[in-house]
Design goal:
The complex is a heterodimer. Chain A is α+β, with helices and mostly antiparallel strands. Chain A has a single domain (2-249), classed as GHMP Kinase, N-terminal domain (Ribosomal Protein S5, domain 2). In chain A, 27% of the residues lie in helices and 29% in strands. Chain A contains 5 helices and 9 strands. Chain A has helices at residues 65-81, 121-135, 165-170, 196-210, 234-249; strands spanning 8-11, 19-25, 28-39, 51-57, 90-100, 143-153, 156-161, 173-180, 185-192. In chain A, the strands form 2 sheets. In chain A, strands 1-2-3-5-4 form a 5-stranded mixed sheet. A 4-stranded antiparallel sheet of chain A has the order 7-6-8-9, sandwiched between helices. The longest helix of chain A has 17 residues, at 65-81. The termini of chain A are far apart. Chain B is an alpha+beta fold. In chain B, 18% of the residues lie in helices and 29% in strands. In chain B, strands 7, 8, 9, 10, 11 and 12 form a 6-stranded antiparallel sheet that branches. In chain B, strands 1-5-6-2 form a 4-stranded mixed sheet, with no helix packed on it. A 3-stranded antiparallel sheet of chain B has the order 13-15-14, covered by helices on one side. Chain B folds into 3 domains: 7-66, OB fold (Dihydrolipoamide Acetyltransferase, E2P) (Beta Barrel), CATH 2.40.50; 79-159, OB fold (Dihydrolipoamide Acetyltransferase, E2P), CATH 2.40.50.140; 163-258, 2-Layer Sandwich (Ribosomal Protein S8, Chain: A, domain 1). Chain B is globular and about 55 Å long. Classes of the chains: A alpha+beta, B alpha+beta. Chain A: It is found in: Nucleus. Chain A: One of its GO terms (molecular function) is RNA binding. Chain A: Pfam families: RNase_PH, RNase_PH_C.
Chain lengths: 253, 259
């Protein structure tokens, strides 16, 4: 799979859940359901804010330590953008089912060292944000995430957006960054060897993808298409996906 | 009504030109009223919290975000259909939506109820009620009588019939005073024109109760076919997002299948 494919998304795919979304990009397909705010279990109950419960189910087999790690990262970043203080003592449940990955999940990949599956993070993150928006859960801002790898190439280092599994194998460092729609850094996870300069480059590339200035005025469509900034425009994608959902919901207006 | 209805996402900046200001100098300055989906961050920021269309009504000095969802959050003075889950010493515990904390319904908040004459409601029975207290830190409270007049005003236990789930946006449209013009739902009127006799009660919590009335020939009791047809018509109008013309076709089709 190449990174050039555009992201695709559908909202409200699961009729029984409060909100749901299906998202596919860079070879990953993830379906998410969101339920909430619902009554929390006694042990998850917090007197002043909602508990955000994230469950990640892999494409094959049952979840393990790797999934727990992804869940904990997603949980802390989603808690930041959901207005958890609006729903004390309740639970907002996000279930993410990975459906398709570019690597072969059926091969028994016993990891020598526990490492984060960086390439899947953006897909998981985007799907949960879309599902939360579809459920109408009050949020502080929307957010988008992207994975960036620093790959050595002919002696020089190249920044690759949405790296393939092969590129991650040879990469010197892999990073996942998420930004809110207010251009605040929400999540930054890195792995491997890198310098401060490299990280700054990675940060700039990721910010370009997540928060490309949206042309809010109608009739002034994205002009940046010709000059590819190295990756899809996540903010514009989010807005157009939601726009079609909202116009369909409010067809009677 | 405002003509411009921009799409807003959580955290978007609302252009100041869209925020209504009380321009009429004759009237007393009305405070700006924020409806669902908006959040005020002091001193002067108004930020949307959900994705939807921003609606502003300048002459009422109010604004809100119109959106559709399926999880009900109680708001005072909403009409809801609640299911009794159990009875306590002074209250019934009633469920407004699945997997949420129960609302309390005092035994005495029915029309003409006293300790001895209060309605006995077994678990599972339905009531049409009004939300009196909704607060994020407390469980909601509902009542089946207007506390000001002591009259039921159509609230109270719902006997027979069946409850159908609908989306919150559709419930809102059905409850509009002029649901035909503003909400573009005509399906109930059309079913009535086809000669079906039924009663409905719409709950803001995404539930609609349908019961068949005794028909012209004096056949008492619930006509199950009518109830199912009305419920299906409502659910299909909601999920398939039918316009007025398509509603007409749907009603024709369902009534033909029924007979």
């Amino acid at each position: 799979m190449t990174a050039s494919t555009l992201p695709e998304a559908a909202l409200g795919v699961l009729p029984r859940a409060d909100g749901s979304a299906k998202y596919s990009h860079a070879g990953y397909t993830v379906t998410a359901s969101v339920n909430g705010p619902i009554e929390a279990q006694r042990r998850d109950e917090h007197p002043y804010e909602a508990h955000v419960d994230v469950i990640v189910r892999p494409a094959a087999g049952v979840g393990g330590t790797r999934e727990r790690h992804l869940e904990s990262i997603l949980q802390s970043s989603l808690t930041q953008i959901i207005l958890v203080k609006n729903f004390p003592r309740s639970l907002i449940q996000v279930v993410l089912q990975v459906e398709d990955t570019p690597e072969n999940d059926y091969v028994n990949t016993k990891l020598v060292q526990a490492s984060l599956n960086f390439a899947i993070m953006p897909a998981l993150f985007q799907t949960s944000v879309l599902a939360l928006l579809s459920a109408g859960v009050p949020m502080r801002a929307t957010a988008a995430a992207t994975a960036v790898a620093v790959v050595p190439e002919d002696g020089a280092k190249k920044i690759v957006v949405d790296p393939s599994p092969r590129q991650i194998e040879i990469a010197q460092s892999v990073h996942v960054l998420a930004f809110t729609s207010q251009e605040e850094l929400l999540l930054a996870e890195s792995e491997g060897d890198f310098t401060v300069k490299e990280w700054d480059d990675v940060y700039e590339t990721a910010q370009k993808i997540c928060c490309r200035p949206a042309s809010t005025k109608e009739g002034m469509e994205m002009v940046l298409d010709e000059e590819d900034a190295g990756g899809p425009d996540m903010r514009h994608f989010l807005r157009s996906t939601l726009e079609s959902k909202v116009t369909a919901d409010l067809h009677w207006k | 009504m405002a003509t411009e209805r921009p799409l807003v996402l959580p955290g978007d900046v609302i252009p100041p030109s869209l925020i209504p200001t009380s321009a009429n100098p004759n009237k007393k300055q009305q405070p700006l009223r924020l409806g669902p989906g908006l959040r005020h961050i002091p001193p002067s920021d108004i930020v949307p919290t959900v994705a939807g269309q921003l609606i502003t009504v300048p002459h009422k000095n109010s604004m809100w975000v119109e959106y559709n969802s399926s999880r009900y959050t109680p708001t005072p003075s909403d009409l809801v259909i609640a299911t009794i889950s159990r009875s306590g010493p002074d209250f019934y515990y009633a469920s407004l939506s699945p997997y949420t904390a129960n609302a309390t319904l005092p035994h005495l908040s029915f029309e003409g109820a006293t300790k001895k004459t209060r309605p006995q409601l077994p678990p599972g029975s339905l009531v049409y009620a009004r939300v009196t207290l909704a607060n994020k830190h407390m469980d909601p409270e509902i009542e089946c009588v207007s506390s000001a007049t002591g009259k039921a005003d159509g609230l109270g236990p719902l006997k027979d019939g069946m409850v159908f789930d609908i989306s919150l946006g559709f419930a809102r449209r059905l409850l509009m005073a002029r649901s035909k013009e503003e909400g573009k739902v005509e399906v109930l009127e059309l079913l009535g024109e086809e000669g079906l006799a039924f009663e409905t009660a719409v709950g803001r919590n995404g539930k609609v109760w349908v019961s068949g009335a005794s028909d012209a020939k004096g056949n008492e009791g619930v006509n199950a076919k009518t109830v199912v047809v009305v419920g299906r018509a409502l659910q299909e109008t909601d999920t398939k997002r039918l316009g007025v013309e398509q509603q007409r076709k749907l009603v024709k089709k369902l009534v033909r299948e029924m007979r």
